[in-house]
Amino acid sequence: MTMIWPQYLNSNLTLSEGRKVSLEYAVKDPTLNEISRALKRLGINCTVEKNKAYPGKWYEKSGRIIAESDKNKNELLKEICNELKTMK
User: For 9, 22, 44, 67, which has the most beta carbons within 10 A of its beta carbon?
Assistant: First the structure.
């Protein structure tokens, strides 16, 4: 199980603000809906939790996604970013 916050993939954020992928992969303001659709297209089951707040921005309920994948987190995030780019 892998926890995915939209901040991990957001090209508008710096690494210290929570982005986990390089700008080469990152996408602009990904939504929970887009990320969950990308995961479904990749054949990965996921659960969306809309009322969760990213610890770095505890005051902002951005939500998170729990993905059921055995892949390493960084690989999974890059795959999601690539899928988001093909969807847009």
Answer: 9
| 51 φ/ψ sector (left φ>0, alpha ψ -120 to 50, else beta) | alpha
Q: Which fold has domain 2-87?
A: Phenylalanyl-tRNA Synthetase; Chain B, domain 1 (3.30.56)
Which position has the token pair 């991990």?
Answer: 8
pTM, whole model, 2 decimals?
A: 0.90
- What span, in angstroms and rounded, lies between the C-alpha atoms of 68 and 3? 9
Choose among 5, 18, 14, 1: nearest CA to 80. 5
Query: What is the distance between the alpha carbons of residues 22 and 83, in angstroms, rounded to a whole number?
Result: 15
pLDDT digits over 2-60, tens only? 999 999 999 999 999 999 999 999 999 999 999 999 999 999 999 999 999 989 888 88
Tell me if 46 sits within 8 A of 36, measured CB to CB: yes
